Amino acid sequence: MTHIIRVIVGSKNPVKVGAAKTALTTLFPEVVIECEGMHAPSLVADQPMTEAETQAGAVNRVKYCQNHYQADYYLAMEGGVDLFDHGPATFAHIAIAHKDQVSVGRSALLPLPMPVYHALTQGEELGNVMDSMFNTVNIKQKGGAIALLTQGHATRQSIYTQAIILAMAPMLNPEIYRL
Questions:
Q1: pLDDT tens digits, one per residue of 31-71
Q2: Phi/psi of residue 76, each to 5°?
Q3: Which residue spans within the chain are E strands per DSSP?
Q4: 64: which of 17, 37, 114, 156 is 20 to 30 A away, CA to CA?
């Protein structure tokens, strides 16, 4: 009998749903992963501008999914920007819930050009700024700023996938994380 893991992702963005499915398929290769994206409000700005706001958005999305859907795992990703000592960067926070466990992680940082950061401080969203700068359409549902700025060597989905796998560590090793 085939074992199925049902996953709800707190977004309908195909990049986020794809990252969740890829990550869980990597972690559980013997299992069928049913992954579905659902609208889940982040309750933060469309373009979070701090680490704290970005993390809150991911956690809010996971909580919403837990309260409205039935699944084995709930995942949410929130992309954000912050100004660090070394300059502006974009990243994502990941929140994962499974039974009574919640794990929060973060992706790697992608340095941003200062003109991009300045546009974001004026209220624009990163995807729109990148579309304008690189003459693309809806890049946030494709490779993202990551693909554009790394010249295709990394994508938004690849970075989200890695961050999900790392954030899954407590669920993969509950006996040592619950000590």
A1: 999 999 999 999 999 999 999 999 999 999 999 999 999 99
A2: -145, 145
A3: 4-9, 32-37, 73-84, 87-98, 101-106, 110-111
A4: 156
The SS3 call for residue 4 is strand
What are the contacts of 101-106 at 24+ separation with CB within 8 A? 101/170, 101/171, 101/174, 101/177, 102/59, 102/62, 103/167, 103/168, 103/169, 103/170, 103/171, 104/55, 104/58, 104/59, 104/167, 105/163, 105/164, 105/166, 105/167, 106/51, 106/55, 106/163
Q: What is the pLDDT of residues 126-161, one digit of tens each?
A: 999 999 999 999 877 788 889 999 999 999 999 999
DSSP state of 127: H
Let me know if 135 is exposed, middle or buried by CB neighbors in 10 A (0-12, 13-18, 19+).
exposed
Helix (H, G, I), strand (E, B) or coil at 154: coil
Domains, in order of start, for the chain: 4-109+155-177 (3.90.950.10)
